[in-house]
Amino acid sequence: MAESISDTFAQPDNPPDPGAAALVTREAVLGAFLRAHRERLAPDDVGLPPGRRRRTPGLRREEVAQLAGLSATWVTWLEQGRPVALSARALASLATALRLSRAERAYLFELAGRRDAQPAGSEAVPSAVMASVHAINGPAYLLDRQWNALAWNEAAARLFVGWLDADSPERNLLRAMFLSAPLQALVDDWPHRAGRLVAEFRAHSIRHADDAPMRALIEGLMAESPAFGAAWLSQDVEDREGGHRGFHHPALGALQFAQLTLWPAAAPGLMLVMLLPA
């Protein structure tokens, strides 16, 4: 008698491994990640004495808990994949205790569903990222989390009167866009572009909305610019997709570019913006 389809699926020759299925949960992945990085560390790596003979590689859970200032029970439960909710501060302590790299720390916070408590601007911008701005043939600039210009090339200085030129005291893109008359005159269709810029900033800044510099920037603009206040209160959110950019330069006349924005992996939170020939 021919075997039915239902019989084939009811009694598989190679049933799935229940342990492998369990690893698909976020908690299980987090636990495996923490355990692997604990086992990679030796006591000497973190300034602890070797102690008695170790039957397993790496640090003990109690030692990680001691270094992180956490309960050993919590560390055990985390590695076991139990649903333990840790604060951002506790996760930061774990990242420090396990000597995680920047990428590993970001991965840890993503797994835990938390925002990193690391202060904005706490890391230096890699020199290669800074140098890339000046290697680009065309206007280019680098923005930090609050959209302050950290670096720009000569082409950008010539183009952006009222912001990146030598006579402008304002280096924050949002503040210049709403408070600098020369920049407003430069940008084609300023009302539309200014409103879109605020919508893009809202999307970009949400991960750092609680940072003191971010709050100060928004509060200051709300007080100084009714146009910014109206745009911010509209709650519009847009991706920074680039596209066509037009300018009315006082010396160079009408200019057209295609904007491209990149997020350097070596400098999380920063944006490299280029204006290419349209």
Automatic annotation (TrEMBL):
Alphabetical list of SMART domains matching this protein:
HTH_XRE
Q: Where is the HTH cro/C1-type domain?
A: 33-105
- Any stretches that span the bilayer, and where are they? none
What Pfam families is this protein classified in? HTH_31 (PF13560), MLTR_LBD (PF17765)
Give a GO molecular function annotation for the protein.
DNA binding
**What's the name of the protein?**
HTH cro/C1-type domain-containing protein
